[in-house]
Amino acid sequence: MGAHGSIAGVQEQGCKALANLAENYENDAEEIVRAGGIVAVVAEMGANTSDARVQLQGCRALGSLAETIDEEGVPALRQRWRHTDRPGVENEGGRVLKILRV
Description:
Number of helices: 6
Shape: globular
Largest sheet: none
Order of helices and strands: HHHHHH
Structural class: mainly alpha
Oligomer: single chain
């Protein structure tokens, strides 16, 4: 994802892949978090604020990883969600915050 930060479609698919791994394989979710996956997702969401697809898949990935996030990861998630007028982004972002109770 980092090598192609300016290509929104790559970021969307990268976030989608991380979400799928985290949703289907608990050990993968823990490894993604340890490897800095949360930081990467938040960074790509920040770099692609004008693309609702990246925001949606980023929120989905964060939601899928949320149960493995420790206190260090919470401040990055408190950033203002972009595209909250899009139901998918609002729903996924809300899910992350609800899980974390922030």
